[in-house]
Amino acid sequence: MLKYSKFLGLIVFVFLFAMCNQTSKNKSDKETILKGSLDITVDETVKPIVDDQVAVFEGTYYSAKITVNPKSEAELINDLLNQKTKVVIATRDLTKEELSRFEKSKIKPRVTPFAKDAIAFISSKSNNDTLIALKSVIDFMQGKPDTGIKGLVFDNPNSSTVRYMKELAKVKNVPTQNVYSFKTNDEVIKFVSENDGMIGVVGVNWLSQPSTEMVDIVKKINILSVKGLNSDKYYSPTQNDLAEVKYPLARDLFIINCQGYNGLGMGFGSFIAGEIGQRIVLKSGLLPVRTPGRKLQIRNKLLKDNE
């Protein structure tokens, strides 16, 4: 009886081992760096640029299918740490504490920067003043009086824009009065366009690449030029001012891949950091981490004809 039990246990072990190997084999057969399906969780403040990248990637590699799930930064990082998602697009790198969580699970995240984004301040077109001092916004965040700001409007209490501004103002919480929050950047833009004196805080990507429904609404707002804390000049969230490191509210975009194998996350990360992906970033109005090359072709015949 004992021998029979051992024999049965051995059969079960061999069966489970074979099933595990088959599962791994099936997974590797279904997904490579250029084929398969992948869910990506994306910081909602930069969704437009990611949608463009995915559209071109899928149009280039027909066997790849990427689903974009927009979430707030707090939700995104929480899902990544709890391994509910394996690949994310974030507006910041992982902290030492977050990296240590992955080390305990023997996972080494692949972090790839691919663009420079910016936080923009917006106001209604009915407001003739298109300039704002960053110090005034920080003073407002710190609850100081007489800042000249009627109210601040954020997209989401857990968003990357709120976290960015809290860190800049060195406060744990935003003021309880005259601060408004919605669910999306589009809602912020619409609210600001209809309410004079309000200052909206949004990802500039939503302004440089508005959806069809938002094109006319974006025309009703001003993108404010900002004076930094150590500057006496005002700068805008343009590619030029970002490239010259003049705009004071710039931030980097990262793709963070925790798949742990050579899957579609690696392929997509290489794509957006490569030549085509960087051209998409450049066209979007954001700043690529590396300038795409330009090829010049000189035609001798044309030169001779012009002589």
From TrEMBL:
Gene3D superfamilies: Periplasmic binding protein-like II. Residues 36-274 form the PBP domain. Keywords: Signal. InterPro entries: PBP_domain, Phosphate_ABC_transporter. Residues 1-20 form the signal peptide. Pfam families: PBP_like_2 (PF12849). This is Phosphate ABC transporter substrate-binding protein.
